[in-house]
Every structure is written in structure tokens, then in C-alpha cells.
Amino acid sequence: MSSQEISEAESLRHEQDAHGTEVAEHPFADPGLPPHKPRKQDIDERAARRSERAVALLFTVSMLATIGFIASFVIFPVDKIIYVWPLGHVSATNLSLGLTLGIALFCIGAGAVHWGRTLMSDEEMVDERHAVAATPEVKAKVMADFADGARESAIGRRPLIRNTMFGALAMVPLSGVVLLRELGPLPEDKLRKTLWSKGKQLINMNTNEPLRPEDVAVGSLTFAKPEGLEEHAEDFNNQIAKAALMIVRIQPDDIKDRRQLEWSHDGIVAFSKICTHVGCPISLYEQQTHHVLCPCHQSTFDLSDGARVIFGPAGHPLPQLRIGVNDKGYLEALGDFDVPVGPAFWERG
Amino acid sequence: MSTTTATETKRKAPAGERVADWADGRLGIYSLAKANMRKIFPDHWSFMLGEICLYSFLIIILTGVYLTLFFHPSMNEVEYSGSYVPMQGIRMTEAYASTLDISFDVRGGLLIRQIHHWAAVIFLAGMFVHMMRVFFTGAFRKPREINWLFGFLLFVLGMFTGFTGYSLPDDLLSGTGVRFTQGAILSVPIVGTYISMFLFGGEFPGHDIIARFYSIHILLLPGIMLGLVVAHLILVIYHKHTQFAGPGRTNKNVVGMPLLPVYMAKAGGFFFLVFGVIAVIAALFTINPIWALGPYRPDQVSTGAQPDWYMGFAEGLIRVMPGWEINLWGHTLVLGVFIPLVVFGLVLAAIALYPFIESWITGDKREHHILDRPRNAPTRTALGVAWVTSYMVMLIGGGNDIFATHFHLSINSITWFVRIFYFLGPVLAFIVTKRICLGLQRRDRDKVLHGRESGIIKRLPHGEFVEVHEPLSQAQLHSLTAHEQYKPAHLGPVTDENGVKRKLTRGEKLRVKLSKGYFADGNQIPKATAEEYKEISEGHGHH
């Protein structure tokens, strides 16, 4: 392979494309491939033998590491925790299996690459490229063949067959689409209703006991669920995803929203815990300002002002649950939320 | 070597040949090998990035198959009784319980899980960087536009495969991510609630989503991706690899080393290197400790919840978007969530479309096998950097809480910074990148015309000090001037040769405008010409 034989890109020089964007020329001729410079291993057999030993050593280390992997697998119990500086307390199996497997694999790779780089020929070779597009003769032959085939099928001459075939092919996937209907129920009013209704007591999420007004201290954030919803219930997650409630006590004088005050009991207000942005549960409460923050996307609501959005991506306030106290002195709901809880949707209105 | 082994190998060789003959008679392997066994691949470190993607994809499939042997994609609730003490007695889905089992009760299970997850993270990062390499060197040009699209699809499908994968354990973090997805789906006008009900088999979270994500994660998406990877590789072989300009390297050849033996060793070895490094990372660094927070419950959440990095920019979009909602005629248009969803699609679509936009602007219908150096396509490079900048700004937006707590900054200021810099950042990046490219082009031009700064200071007879510039070799001169420079398109005369007013479509006017933006004076530095070189080198020598 000599550099003189390499065809120059000069043919490109005078090519101009059809759209008239001209291309500047190559000012300095291509001198062709430089002559091959031999490596140390190519001329010094001792260097080549050193490379050979290095490759063999790497492959040997790999074998030893695989034996180490099998040994670690047998030796360490699965729950063995060891202290390794600076990783801390780690699983002995995970560490030993991972390191031995990693070394076994890496050494195969390093050996192969070292072999390729030092002992295999590094003389550059040349392949010619050929245009991807077919020659005009080939194209003409294909077009003629296609025309023959199309004519013999009579698809152009018999439009009745053609049109009914396209009709049938277009319609048959509809069966598949129809089958997808079984994936789930229609939305109906499922997103508007929660388990809350008039007279349902507010149950403390932590203690599983009904809440009394005196249980709710100023500055604390209490989470509640509706009476009758048990954690082991089949649809607990579906229900709590809508019914989760957070309760705070605010000095009635500090409540800026008039309706909020009406719907509260003695300064105790209950809001949906589900963020109106995309539905994360809100969990951070700032006692002094009565702001709550959703930790997912940082929507911030002012619980002393109708839970309006004061920062972040949420689009509307948290729905408030109207509460009161029943004869037994427990907090109870006075109805369901008047608007859908959670993220907004097209039918929300 | 002793004589016995020599004769043994002699006897073995025909056996191997007989097997090959047998296969050739049925598969035609000799013709295939004739074309490909000694196929030439050019060498450059950046061509290795695609290999990282391919190998991490294989590692993901290998480890993923292992994980399916132990994972139970079910949302039936069980009481945990495995060996991880803090979770004993807690009610959780079988999906979560079996992931705990993989992590604590299957020997090596945690390692395989961590290799799987690390490899996924590296796969996506590899694709991102590989695509940047292809973009900034113009390797997406004809005839490789379709392969660019295949690669683009692999990246997008990889994102969703990753998302459905890390959602499977049904731990508190992953469930939160699924909730976020459901909230985003609800924002879609008209059909949002229907899609949500159909996807989840009813209300969120329901009992179906893990099983459905499972079949999407292990069958549907990887099946499509495997097909795309094969098609991607076939096209790489069919088109032959691109190469950088250099002596002996033309648009009509490919210069490098043969597949057998050099790339068998180097590329084959590289698979083991990638696998080895990922295994070591998985041994040393915990990823996604699903046992830390417990099973998913819709009314619980942790702070600092973050998706995997490749979903971070979607997270950023959703975090920094103002909460716009329009209520009209009893319907809600949830722009605050829907706009991020649309922008997410548009930002990705821009990647897919770019090769077609650029070829429309240049009007170039030729094949391109010589790579551009990024500096020699200043506008393209600047656009690419602008895109990456907006992407990175959104990654900051996606981690605004992490940045706030780690750097003691106000989350509100970070959010406002992201809101402004999502628009301003790309503009600045575009201008700066273009200036840098033009500066580098000028330097190349100087280097060609005046030679390389040798660092040798010479004192002239009359006392002046000058630095000696060494002239470049012919090979260097050629390499630095091998790139093509388009001339900007022109609208042409307003009237044709008969004096009739020519009709100019709006598209044609736009094309000319964009072409000027790419190639007009000031948007690229004309490369040195042979005449200039001659004049300078003959005129006053090198100094």
C-alpha cells in the first residue's frame, strides 16, 4: 500500500451542488499517508516479549480474580457487614464479589487492549468507499422491475380490489385499539370524590385515634385520615392518595381568609395534604409563617391565607376540608372537599 | 512447542475449517467474512464513546435477565419477613419485598442490581456524550441522517426504559416519581384523565402499574431498542466509519486498522474494561438504596427526592415553570404542567430534526465522510453548545433543592435564576462559543500562513528580537485547510432573464437568511489560500 495510490479528494474540488451553495477548494494538496513508523516492539524482540509477559500476567490476574470471586461467594455470609475505610460499613459479599468480578473483567480487557496496541500490526490500511446511492442502471432496472410487478398484480387496473384492501388494512387495527379499552375504567367523577363525608371523624395518622381539638397544638403539623380507613385495607393507597389531610392550629386572628375562618374550628384548619401541582404529599411546615412546602417541587402555600400559592409551580390553593366537633368532642368533617384534591386536570373546571 | 502439539494443531485446523465449510454452505459466512473480517476502522478516542453505550447496553441486558429471576412484579401486599431488620413486619408490595430480598438475601443480588443501575446511568450518559461527538463533528450529515434518528430514538427510549426500571422497586422514592408522572399526565388537555385511568388501571396508584411498567421495561422497550441497536450497527458498518481529515484520508476512503485482529482485541477488550469498571463502581458506591426510606405510600414523601440524572431536565422544567392555570367554560388548562411536558418533547425533537434543518440550509446533497472540527462549523457548534447550556440549566432547576441545601442558597433565587437563564444562557453560550470558534479558526489560519510558534527567540543584526516561526509540514498544512467552507446562499435577482418578477417563497427567503447566518463573512473565517501562503512565504520569509 503506497500513499501515491490513494485517490485524492481533488475530485470534490470542482463539484458544485445543485442548490448553488459553493464550496471553497482545498488549497494544499494531500501528501498522502505518512510512512509507517515501527514501534519498539516491532524492532526489539525483547520489548515484544515484555509486552507478551504483561498481557499474560493480566490474563493470569483475571483468572485469580475469578477464583477470588468464587471463594468470596462461598466464604462470606450474605448478611456479613464489614467496616472498610473510607467506605464505612458495607456488605462483605457486595464488596468482595464486585471487586473480584471487576478485576477479572478489567484484566481481560486490559490484556486484550495491550496485546492489540503493542503486538498486533499498527500499520494503517485503506479501504475505498463506494457511494451509497445506486447507479442509474441499477435504479432503472429496479424501476422497471417494480413497474412489471405492479402491472402484473393489476393493482392499478382494478381499483375495487385496491380500495377494499386499503379499507380492510386500515380497519383491522381498530380491533387492537378497542381491546385497550379494558386497560382501565373511565374517569367519571372518581377524581372529585374522596372518602370524607359529613360526620366522619378525623383519625390521627400516627396514633390511629380520633382527634380532639385539644390534641392539636399551635405550631404542630398533624396528619389525619378519615374514620374507617384502615392501613391494611385493599384500597388504602388509592383512598389515602386523595383523602390525606393535614391539620394545623392558627390563632383565629391570624387567619386572613374569611371563608377559611368559617370552615375552621377554634383556629384548627384542615387542608388536603396532596399538592395541587402534581400530587406529592406536602410535609414541611414553617410554624412562624404558617407556610407549608412540598418537598418534591417546592410549591409553597400560606395556610393562614386560604392555602394560596405563594411560590413554586402549583397552580391553585390546597382544598380546605370544613370541620367541626361532634357530640363526643372529636373533630369531624362537615362534608367532602368542595373541589377536587390533587393535581389539576381538564375536567376540573 | 513440541512436535506432538504441532501435529495436533495441524489436525485441528481442518476440523475448524470443516465446521466453517458446513456453516458457509448454509449461511454464506465466507462472503460475509470476505467483506467484513478485515474491515478498516479509523482510530480516534471519541469513536470509543459509542462503544461505551453498546457495551453498557449489553451489560444492562445480562444483569437485567438475572434480576427478573428474583423480582416479583406484583402489587399484592405482604408483610416483610426477610433479613433486613428495620423493615420486618412492615406491609409492602411484593415488588418492594422482592427487591429487598435481591438486596439482602440473594448472594450477589445487590451487586447485580447495582451493576444494572450504574450501567443504565452510564448508558444514558454515554449516549448523551456520543451524540454530542456526532453532532459537533458533523457526523450526522448525509448519508448518516437515519442513523442519527436511530441513535436519537435509542436515547429517548433509554430515558423511558430507565424511568420504568427505577419505578419498579415501588419504594418511597420511585413511587413519588410515578406520582409526578401521573400528575403530569393529568395535565394533558381533554384526554389526560383517560390516559391516567387506562395506564394505572383506575385511580392512582391502583394495583396494576408495577406489572405494566415491568412488561414495558423488560420486554417492549428493550425489544425495540435491541432492534435499533442492531440497525444502528449495521448502518455503521455499511456506511463505513467517518474519519478526521489528514494526510491520505479522503472522502472516498477510510484509513485505519482492520477489524481482525486489531479491533477484535481493542473493541472486544473494551467491553471487558467497561464491564470491569462498572463492576468496581457497583462494589464501591451504593446506587438507589431502596431500603433507606421504606415502601411507597401516597401520603408520605422524603425531602431531596431526585430522579436519575437523565430525567433531571424534565424535573427542572416542571419545577421552575410558573403555576399557570386557565379555567374556562368549566374546563381547566393546566399550562403550569402541560407546557413543561410540551417543551420536554420539543427540546428532544430539536435533536432529531437538526440534520435535516442543516442540510436544507446548506442545500448540500453530497455524502460526507470527513468529520468537521467543531471550530470549522462555528454556527452549528454554537447552536449545540446553546442546547447543552439550556439542558444543563434545567438540570440545575431539577436539583434546585439540592443546590439550595448544599450551597446554602435561597431556593427562590435558584428557581428565578433558572427561569431567566433558561432563555438567557443559551444566547450567551451561542455568542461566546461562536467567538471562540472564530478565534480558533483565525489561529489555524495564522498557523498555516506564518507557521508554528517555535518558542525560539532570535536577535536580528539590528537588535530586534523576533520569535522564529517554523513552517508547517505539507501534511499539517493539508489537515488544517482540508475543511470545506460553504458560501452563503443568495436570493438571486428579483427578476428573471425576461424581466418577469421571480416568485420567492417564504421558505426560500428563510433559507437564505439562515445560510448567511451560518456562512456569511464574519460567521466563518476564510481559510488560508495557496496564493496567500505563497505570497507570505516568498515575500518576507518566516519570522
TrEMBL record, chain A:
Q: What is this protein called?
A: Cytochrome bc1 complex Rieske iron-sulfur subunit
Family the entry assigns: Belongs to the Rieske iron-sulfur protein family.
List the Pfam families: QcrA_N, Rieske
Annotated segments matching region Disordered: 1-46
What cofactor does this chain's UniProt record say it requires? [2Fe-2S] cluster
User: Is the keyword Nucleotide-binding assigned to this protein?
Assistant: no
Q: Where in the cell is it found?
A: Cell membrane
Q: Which UniProt keywords apply?
A: 2Fe-2S, Cell membrane, Disulfide bond, Electron transport, Iron, Iron-sulfur, Membrane, Metal-binding, Oxidoreductase, Respiratory chain, Transmembrane, Transmembrane helix, Transport
Instruction: Provide the taxonomic classification.
Output: Bacteria, Bacillati, Actinomycetota, Actinomycetes, Kitasatosporales
Q: How does it sit in the membrane?
A: Multi-pass membrane protein
The domain of life is: Bacteria
Q: State where composition is biased (Basic and acidic residues).
A: 10-28
Known Gene3D superfamilies for this protein? Rieske [2Fe-2S] iron-sulphur domain
TrEMBL record, chain B:
| Top enzyme class | translocase
The cofactor named in the record is: heme
Protein name, per record: Cytochrome bc1 complex cytochrome b subunit
Q: Which domain of life is it from?
A: Bacteria
Q: Which InterPro entries match?
A: Cyt_b/b6_N, Cytb/b6-like_sf, Di-haem_cyt_TM
Which Gene3D superfamilies did the record assign? Cytochrome Bc1 Complex, Chain C
What range does the record give for the signal peptide? none
Q: Which UniProt keywords apply?
A: Membrane, Transmembrane, Transmembrane helix
Q: Give a single Pfam family match.
A: Cytochrom_B_N_2
Transmembrane domains' residue ranges: 47-71, 115-136, 148-168, 180-201, 213-238, 267-288, 333-357, 377-396, 416-437
